[in-house]
Each structure stands twice: as structure tokens, then as C-alpha cells.
């Protein structure tokens, strides 16, 4: 690690020159995104310009395996870049995070048949193709709650005909590949199917309070034909997707994004405090005791959440498949700590700036709205607490556990 006491927060977790060089590319993108973020938020419009810049920079292929022309960066490094992108625009970071995260997930889990995975990877490298998984539905909600999808796949010669609708389909205006779940007609099984983006209809339903530019619209499948070889997996009731074989480490792109937004809020508040001097004081408000306390609280919350995230990302990178699966409760803890800390940091930032923070010509009110969305990304807080509780019970009840004094 190249950081040290007093080191800029952007470089604190950078470990080597390769990460530093790629991070400089991302920092330039982030600065450009920050200039456009308010406009995209105000209009609730998908940031096509930002996505094209990410394609042109090569960022969309950085988590692709080297054997297919990618950079094969680690989970740890992916989080560095996602956090930095979110300092410029949270919506863009969250949207592209699903793509780069999913490519890392597919690389680690081996969930796709090799020929199909190679086809997707080469399309990402050659033309910047984008992929995401779209599984939530209006009635069943998040797939993490276990509902059977209403979207249905009807077998026919050579493949399947799919009919249905998915919600919260982030990145939908730019997707080339879409992994969808569908109940298979005539059975209790659920299939995972890889569709082409051009075969679905995007219905622009995304009109929300925060993360307004993620393009998380509905997608409609109206008799979409999918060849049999693009049935990625066929799951029996209660069976987990092969994509779960990596323990879900890739989902840390979510807390990284919200921590990036919180860092942007901290930057804005500290700059304001260091420069604003009312005529009632002989110095800027940064020297006022209760302002210093709030700034210190922000720093502590960010340090704790970021340190946990990067430590567990490093552990995930170094772990084997079995150990990665066992890390699921701790990975969930990162998301819960990070998103709740981000909310608290933005709140503190607004208290430092005061009523001025509510003005639309400052970014703090946008940061406030954006970080609230983190509560509704997976895994949910109640699920994480349950996983941690179960892990604690298993820990203390396993054979051979003892504590001195008992």
C-alpha cells in the first residue's frame, strides 16, 4: 500500500503503479462526469455520453480475462475505480458497476459455458458491449427473496420463446447482453437465459428520487426467441444459480459506489468549511469546535467503512472458491456498513454547510438523494443481520469452541 498519514483519500488504498496508472484514467473520467451529473439528474436522462467515454477508455473491459483481451483486474482494484467514478457521478458509477462487476462474477464463478463466455468477452473487448442481469419483477420483487419469476420460457424446437417483464433493469438503454430468469413452462424449474439487448423493448419507467440517471427502466420480452445454447442454467426449486459460486464478492461494487458519493459530499462540505468565514468570526468555520467534530465524525465513518471494504476485497481475491462462499456474511456486512455510513456522512456534510446545502445549485442535495438508494440495493440490511447472526451461532456452537472463564 502506497498511502500514509496525511495522504490524499484518492491514493490511500492504491497499492502499485499499475493500479495508480489506471486510476488516473478513471479520475479524469470522474472529473468530466461531475460536470454533467447535475444535468443528467435534473432531466432523469441516461448518461450516454458518459457510457461512451467509459467504452472509449477501455474501462468496460478491465474485468474481462486476459485470455480474451481484457485486463483481468482484481476485485480490490475494481472497487478503487468504482469509488472514484462515483465521486463524479453516482448514477454512472452504479450503472457501469453492474457490467464490470458481472464480468468479474462470470470470470470467477465459471457460470457460463466457455464458448458463450468467450463470445460475450470478445464482444466487450471488440466493441464495448455491455451486460447485466435483469431478474426483478413487478409482482415477485427482488429475486433475493426467492419468488418464482412470472416471466415464462416456452420450449419449442431449437430453443425457447420468452414472454414477460423485468423491472429495475439498470443500464437498459445501453445493454447488448441481458441475463434474465424465467419459469420454464411445463415444469417447476427456472431457467437463466442470455438475451440480446436488441431483442427486448425498453419501457422508460425510471422516475425516482435518487440515482435518477441509471436507466433502470422496465424491459419487456414479447415472444423473444432464445436458442437452446443460450439457456445458461436450469435450476430446480430452491437451487442457487452457478453465479453464486463466487460468494458474491462482485456485489461490493454497490458499497464502493455509495462510499464514492459520500466522499464527494465530504469533499464539498470540507471545502465549504475551509473557505466560508461569516463576519461574526475571525476565521473560517472549519476552526469552529462543533464543525470540527462533525468533520471528524465523517472521516471516522469513511475510514471504517472503506477499510473494511478493501480488506475483505483483498481477502476475497486471495481466497479459493470454498472460502469465498464462506465470506458471504462478511461481504454483506460491507454493504450494510457502507450504505448506512454513506447516509450518515452526507447528513453530517449538510449539517456543516447548513441551509445552503438544500439549494439545487449545490450538489449536496443530490448526494443526499443518491445515497438513500443504497438501502434498496442487495443484500438488504435484514438479510445481512440474519446472516451475521447465523454465522455467530455457528461459530460458538461448533465442536471445540471454548472461552476462558467458562
TrEMBL record:
Task: Read off the Pfam families from this record.
Answer: Acyl-CoA_dh_2 (PF08028), Acyl-CoA_dh_M (PF02770), Acyl-CoA_dh_N (PF02771)
Q: Which Gene3D superfamilies match?
A: Acyl-CoA dehydrogenase/oxidase, N-terminal domain, Butyryl-CoA Dehydrogenase, subunit A, domain 2, Butyryl-CoA Dehydrogenase, subunit A, domain 3
Presence of the UniProt keyword Flavoprotein in the record? yes
UniProt keyword list? Flavoprotein, Oxidoreductase
Q: Please report the stretch or stretches of sequence annotated as the Acyl-CoA dehydrogenase C-terminal domain.
A: 255-374
Which intervals hold domain Acyl-CoA dehydrogenase/oxidase N-terminal? 17-105
Q: Name one GO molecular function term.
A: acyl-CoA dehydrogenase activity
What is the protein named? Acyl-CoA dehydrogenase
Record the organism: Alicyclobacillus macrosporangiidus
Taxonomy of the source species: Bacteria, Bacillati, Bacillota, Bacilli, Bacillales
Amino acid at each position: 500500500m502506497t498511502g500514509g498519514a496525511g495522504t490524499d483519500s484518492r491514493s490511500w488504498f492504491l497499492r502499485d503503479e499499475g493500479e495508480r496508472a489506471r486510476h488516473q484514467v478513471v479520475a479524469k473520467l470522474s472529473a468530466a462526469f461531475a460536470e454533467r451529473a447535475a444535468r443528467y439528474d435534473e432531466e432523469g436522462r441516461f448518461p450516454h455520453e458518459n457510457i461512451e467515454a467509459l467504452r472509449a477508455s477501455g474501462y468496460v473491459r478491465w474485468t474481462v480475462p486476459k485470455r480474451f483481451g481484457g485486463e483481468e483486474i482484481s476485485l480490490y482494484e475494481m472497487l478503487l475505480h468504482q469509488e472514484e467514478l462515483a465521486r463524479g457521478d453516482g448514477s454512472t458509477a452504479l450503472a457501469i458497476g453492474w457490467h464490470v462487476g458481472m464480468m468479474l462474477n462470470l470470470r470467477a464463478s465459471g457460470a457460463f459455458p466457455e464458448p458463450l463466455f468467450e463470445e460475450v468477452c470478445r464482444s466487450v473487448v471488440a466493441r464495448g458491449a455491455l451486460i447485466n442481469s435483469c431478474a426483478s419483477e413487478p409482482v415477485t420483487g427482488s429475486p433475493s427473496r426467492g419468488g418464482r419469476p412470472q416471466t415464462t420460457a416456452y420450449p419449442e424446437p431449437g430453443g425457447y420463446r420468452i414472454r414477460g417483464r423485468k423491472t429495475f433493469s439498470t443500464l437498459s438503454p445501453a445493454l447488448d447482453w441481458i441475463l434474465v430468469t424465467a419459469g420454464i413452462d411445463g415444469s417447476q424449474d427456472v431457467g437463466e437465459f442470455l438475451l440480446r439487448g436488441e431483442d427486448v423493448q425498453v419501457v422508460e419507467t425510471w422516475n425516482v428520487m435518487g440515482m435518477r440517471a441509471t436507466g433502470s427502466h422496465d424491459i419487456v420480452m414479447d415472444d423473444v426467441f432464445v436458442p437452446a445454447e443460450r439457456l445458461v442454467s436450469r435450476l430446480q426449486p430452491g437451487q442457487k444459480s452457478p453465479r453464486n459460486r463466487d460468494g458474491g464478492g462482485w456485489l461490493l461494487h454497490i458499497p464502493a459506489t455509495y462510499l464514492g458519493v459520500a466522499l464527494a459530499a465530504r469533499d464539498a462540505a470540507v471545502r465549504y468549511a475551509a473557505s466560508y468565514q461569516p463576519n461574526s468570526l475571525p476565521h473560517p468555520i472549519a476552526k469552529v469546535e462543533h464543525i470540527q467534530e462533525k468533520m471528524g465524525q465523517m472521516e471516522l465513518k469513511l475510514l471504517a467503512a472503506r477499510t473494511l471494504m478493501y480488506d475483505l476485497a483483498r481477502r476475497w481475491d486471495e481466497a479459493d472458491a470454498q472460502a469465498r462462499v464462506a465470506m458471504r456474511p462478511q461481504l454483506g456486512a460491507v454493504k450494510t456498513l457502507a450504505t448506512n455510513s454513506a447516509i450518515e456522512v452526507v447528513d453530517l456534510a449538510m449539517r456543516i454547510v447548513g441551509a445552503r446545502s438544500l439549494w439545487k445549485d449545490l450538489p449536496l442535495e443530490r448526494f443526499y438523494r443518491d445515497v438513500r438508494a443504497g438501502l434498496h440495493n442487495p443484500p438488504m440490511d435484514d438479510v445481512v443481520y440474519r446472516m451475521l447472526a447465523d454465522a455467530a451461532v455457528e461459530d460458538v456452537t461448533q465442536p471445540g469452541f471454548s472461552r476462558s472463564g467458562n
